[in-house]
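Record pair follows.
FIRST:
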Amino acid sequence: MSHGAIKLTLAHSPDADDAFMWWPITGKVDPGTGRAVSLPAIRTGRLEFDAVPMDIQALNVRAMERGDLDITAISMHALSHVTDRYALTRCGASMGDGYGPKVVARPSSRSMDEWLHAVRTRGGGGACDGRVAVPGRQTTAFLVFSLLLGTTEFDARPMSFEHVVPAVVRGDADLGIVIHDGQITFAQDGLVQVVDLGAWWHGRTGGLPLPLGANAVRRDLDERLGRGVTASVTGLLHDSIVYAMEHWEESIEYAATFAPGGATPEQIERFVRMYVNDLTADMGSRGESAVRRLLAEGAAAGFCPDAGGLVVF
């Protein structure tokens, strides 16, 4: 660390779209060890960013229990629990514009309504038990599925996101909510889509995108590190995304090292294009409206805290 430098932790989910966004300011890191293997691509002045790749649910829990990371990826659902400690940044969010996490199952003749009835009634005497593999109770996917279902009182089986599809394939769960790259690879494992939660939300809200992952910064950065640090940090986060998008081929090549082994180069690029777009560079008023609508609906249903005090940088 250079003399007078301010070192900041930048935690992100270990998937292709997050890796794509942040390498220009963290440098490239080895996905297995998290160690830096290159210097940052753009100048960051006194600020130095230390990449911390970690499962999104682990990051959700860490933000809620410890709140020690300076900058962190976090599910919009979990963000509602920590608005006193973290602020949302206008850049870095993952939003599905008419698409999003998929609820998947083994092939059957059941309709979506029949599946949802089975989940609500925990099988209801039918041929399945209504078990749902979920990538964490604080994920946005869990919140949106609960809004669709009308309850959080169902047989949810929390697990790391990469285990959801195998659990459904094995029969350890009847349904699975897939996030990250699994949204475009689940069919390779013989599963079928029951509902696209992003498409459901788009129809419910008259065309709003579904805000899934957030990028958040601690609200006390200026107090701890000096006036203007927050503005500098958010500016560099935006610059990192823009640089990554302008250097697409290099960014995709690096992002691919964080993709699952079964994903093809075409699938990896498709996934990144789904979640690194204009709304990622700046969510704007449409994106912010979607965030506030989602958290307001969640709070009204009693599924998450009231996030009326949310600060957006």
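SECOND:
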Amino acid sequence: MTREFGMQLTPSGQLLGTESAEGGPEIQASSWLERVRAGFAENAEAGLFAMAATRPKGTVEAGLAYWREFACLYLGEFCKNPTAPQMPVDGLGGPWASWLWSVPPMPGAEYLTAEVLERIWRDLHAWVQAQVAELGEGSEEWLARFAPDWHQVGRVCFHLAERKSDARHPFAFLATYAPRMGKKGRVQYQALSKALAAQADATDKA
């Protein structure tokens, strides 16, 4: 019988990967879950990174999906700013409010607080920085090696597009920005002008 892998929080707010006696064979057999298992066997930070570094195939249990989304949020912000990835701000509800409201049923869910989420975020960032330093080649090279799907996130990309209707100028260059990874595990691109507008101050018309 396969054993189901899930997430648990201890009363002190430590995130653990745990095994139960029942499981879904199609999920348990995935290479993604095996990497996640191996990561959590090392520590929570390695497990969270394994969740985000590649995408699972098929349906994922709610607790795993929740923490994978958390890890993906971190990795997306790390791609944009490797030195100080920005934590989410949920307006009037306070930092991490939407994450606290949406936590699925899981062992120890009652121990989840904004402070716990912030600490897990900071611990994950400290672990990633240590891994980058150990490689000694910089964050971009580290991502390309260990999380290649994320390599383009946070970067300006140039594309060569064919223009079949223009014989004199058959090709055109397009500049786009990759702000995030989509839910299906594909990098999302947007026009560079939209990225500039989003980053500019509302009063900065120029």
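COMMENT: The helical segments are 25-28, 31-42, 44-53, 62-80, 97-101, 114-135, 139-146, 192-199.
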